[in-house]
Amino acid sequence: MFPEVETLSHQRSANAMQKRVLIVEDDKDIANLVALHLKDLGCQCDLVHDGEKGLEYALKKDYDLIILDLMLPNLDGVEICKEVRTEKKYTPIMMLTSKSEELDRVLGLELGADDYITKPFSVRELLARVKAILRRIDAVKDDVEGVGKKQIKFRDLFIDIEKRKVTMKDERVELTAKEFDLLALFAGNPGKAFTRQNLLDIVWGYTFEGYDHTVNSHINRLRSKIEADSSEPKYIQTVWGVGYKFAEEE
């Protein structure tokens, strides 16, 4: 069905559960370099060098991760990211681009990209970030699925974990990737208090200090979307001196 795609996989992982990665990058040398190192992680990589074709693959095939260049022929990475995020299924996206301006980085993340790395990049850093994304997605799934829930209903809030869909009083709530991951993690563990560092480790995938404001800003935006009164939250509650928790049934 997809004759133009180039697929690279690791022989040692043939009998194991492989991660499938789509690399949409018009520079073939960079695409091959990324694929070469990812296959050492046991990944099967599909390489596409055109934006329109990249969107076609992203929507028609199931991937564990999409590595997406921002500047592409025929269709840019921003439009691809927007289209992928309108679909019911969720796939992590890492933006890979030579554009390093803060505005571009923020735009990509707000559109739903999970991470952003600029060229030239360190292969070691790229691999670390890829592993962090895959670990984080697995961790969020495990935390929610560990309590046996694919769908969560609490008061007027409904969360479909598999479709990554949220409604409040039957009205669709539009969330960014990080906002959904936070909400799914909280709602899958009602009453459990998470520190800001816990949330950074699980949802952002790597440990760093001095970024508590990142958690706070995402919590504030999430509350503004699901709470009737953000000053008196009924769903995501503050645990003073600790962090945050999701409300429990009374």
Describe this structure as you would to a colleague.
With 250 residues, the protein is an alpha/beta fold. It has two domains: 6-141, 3-Layer(aba) Sandwich (Rossmann fold), CATH 3.40.50.2300; 146-246, Orthogonal Bundle (Arc Repressor Mutant, subunit A). It has eight helices and 13 strands. The protein has helices spanning 28-39, 51-60, 77-85, 102-110, 123-145, 177-187, 196-204, 212-226; strands spanning 6-8, 19-24, 43-48, 65-69, 93-97, 115-118, 151-154, 157-160, 165-168, 171-173, 194-195, 236-239, 243-246. Strands 1-3-2-4-5-6 form a six-stranded mixed sheet, sandwiched between helices. The chain has a four-stranded antiparallel sheet with strand order 7-8-9-10, covered by helices on one side. Helix 5 (123-145) runs parallel beside helix 6 (177-187), helix 5 (123-145) crosses helix 7 (196-204) and helix 7 crosses helix 8 (212-226). Residues 10-16 have low confidence and may be disordered.
Keywords:
250 residues, Arc Repressor Mutant, subunit A, six-stranded mixed sheet, elongated, four-stranded antiparallel sheet, Rossmann fold
